[in-house]
């Protein structure tokens, strides 16, 4: 799994979590969405104006309202297993607004457009996936780097192969988010796709200053956000 992770920037880790826990986390995410979901529809300058169209539950809302999610996030056994795959220690995300994110794509055209993460590692829980023909599939370009002032995403797509993955309801994957350009294929009809993202930092991330006012999941009015029609 470590070898696969380093080569592709991603590895399926469903087997690390019991099925019962995965079912409980899905119910928890649906409860939080029901209560706290906020819609986002924007394009982001720091990723070359790629689109974000989905509902979200922001990090601090999840942290403050889900003991289940925060206890899994701090679980030493899980952290050890993911650390073995990463080949390095996982550190709690130093930005409290980026530890967790629940997203729900729901409308035709919804997508999490091409982007990288600010921190090295994410565990993604696929809590509800539409059928493969509807969209929501993950696409990755590993071994790439995010320059927020010149993201050059189309150049990366021209220069590298794009790996496409279908994950079904209940699957989990571990992603190297800072060096894997990734997106979801837009939904081609109204359908529901729900994920939970847990983010950890590598040691290198703890020393770095974050640039760009682009934390769109936390605040829809960040300066890097543009309206869809602009
Ligand atoms: Fe991402």
What would you note in describing this structure?
- The strands form two sheets. Strands 1, 2, 3, 4, 5, 6, 7, 10, 12 and 13 form a ten-stranded antiparallel sheet that branches.
- β2 and β3 (50-57) form a beta hairpin.
- It is globular, with a radius of gyration of 16 Å.
- The relative contact order is 0.25.
- The termini are far apart.
- The protein has a single domain (2-203), classed as q2cbj1_9rhob like domain (Jelly Rolls), CATH 2.60.120.
- It has 230 residues and is of the alpha+beta class.
- The model has no long low-confidence stretch (mean pLDDT 96).
- The longest helix has 18 residues, at 19-36.
- It has helices at 2-8, 19-36, 59-65, 67-73, 76-86, 153-159, 203-206; strands at 10-12, 38-44, 50-57, 91-92, 100-105, 111-112, 121-128, 138-142, 163-165, 172-176, 180-184, 193-201, 225-226.
- Bound molecules: fe (ii) ion.
- Fe (ii) ion (FE2) is lined by residues 115, 117, 177, 182.
